[in-house]
Amino acid sequence: MECLEELARILILEIGCSNKFKGFTLIEVLVVLVIIGITSSLLFLNIGLADTVSKNKSSLNTLFNYLSEESIITGNLLAWHANDKQDLIYIVDYQMEEKKLLDNVQSPWKNFSSNSKTFRYFDGSIIQLNENDLNIPLIIFYPSGENSGGIISISSSNFIQEITINNNGKIETKIIKY
Predict the structure, then answer these.
(1) Is the pLDDT of residue 14 over 80?
(2) How confident is the model at residue 53 (pLDDT cuts 50, 70, 90)?
(3) Which of 19, 44, 52, 152 reaches 20 to 30 Å from 59, CA-CA?
(4) Domains plus CATH for the chain?
């Protein structure tokens, strides 16, 4: 009998189990699941935010590249107007009178309607875009491939996205985190 008890103790030491400990309690399992759930949700939220920023960045790049190409191909001056809620694109004649509204252009500007936006010209003047600022063209695209340029700043709760439209048509984007 003593030999069997000694053998049982050796087996318990080898496998690390005893009759007193049979598994995890329900509370321990639930705590681990809650920790895993919170960690994964934070990870997915951050990935979703990065995806949204990159999609909006590429769609604005696409818009400005399209306007530059459209101006070159058609030989027209194009003026891009924007306020807090919407943007408009006009074909302009050389006396700077608006001729025709381009309405077939898909613009991502509405994706930023809940964000605060400013436009800074290269001379340093800044325009806070609000609902009443559609009377001033922000960027003019010339048939030579150049444009008047400027810097668009889009602020959200976590970051500021700055889109620089250079005079030569090159578009640079940077994200500044708070």
Answers:
(1) no
(2) very low
(3) 44
(4) 27-177 (3.55.40.10)
